[in-house]
């Protein structure tokens, strides 16, 4: 799975302040298992296996999400039950067995990250709690306040630039979608970089979710480097 997008970003001051988590759990079950078609950055098409389970830690509920992208990557994510914000994420290269990316929110606006290209970890300050893992968008976006025209702002930690990136998500349509798993009526969400960052990162990405609660992920679309449409789609709910 591509990390939803790969962007060339320039530092700008960000003027949108969204400190309160914008997504709310719509009732995602305690266990889920589904697969999607998955285009990797190297052009290969694999099957990504998603397994979600509810876990308890000292009386508080969390979702444990394990995503295996064929024989390429393993993503392990822990998110809060109520607002689906990311507590930790770890991405492992299955071929080299090396840690690719790691993020841990430690509380009190402190987080720790590791990125393989820098080969070292670092603690940094985060400005708010409204941070969502880019590897778990297919899950956390299910908590969007679905209705055409609704819009939210949040942040994603971008390892490549050691910083939080402001994001904008808007519901642009309601339509019928056909994928391998079947026919669905969906809400269509448009994802883009927000604020001044959008002047240099103009890409838009589209995600489709079932209109029925708990809003299963159905389809993802982006334009490839050659201008062709790249899609990831729901294959099977197990």
Describe this structure in words.
It is built from one helix and 14 strands; from the N terminus they run E-E-E-E-E-E-E-E-H-E-E-E-E-E-E. With 238 residues, the chain is mostly beta strands. A 14-stranded antiparallel β-sheet has the order 8-7-6-5-4-3-2-1-14-13-12-11-10-9, with no helix packed on it.
Keywords, please?
238 residues; mainly beta; 1 helix
- Tally of individual helices: 1
Mean pLDDT: 85
Structural class: mainly beta
Using the coordinates shown, work out and report the CATH topology.
YmcC-like fold
Strand order, largest beta sheet: 8-7-6-5-4-3-2-1-14-13-12-11-10-9
| Helicity range | under 10%
Largest sheet: 14 strands, antiparallel
Q: Please state the CA-atom Rg, rounded to the nearest Å.
A: 17 Å
Shape: globular
> Secondary-structure element order, as H and E?
EEEEEEEEHEEEEEE
Write the layout of secondary structure elements.
Blueprint: E1 31-39, E2 45-57, E3 60-69, E4 73-80, E5 86-93, E6 99-107, E7 110-115, E8 120-125, H1 137-140, E9 151-158, E10 163-179, E11 182-193, E12 204-210, E13 217-223, E14 229-237
Antiparallel strand pairs: 1-2, 1-14, 2-3, 3-4, 4-5, 5-6, 6-7, 7-8, 9-10, 10-11, 11-12, 12-13, 13-14
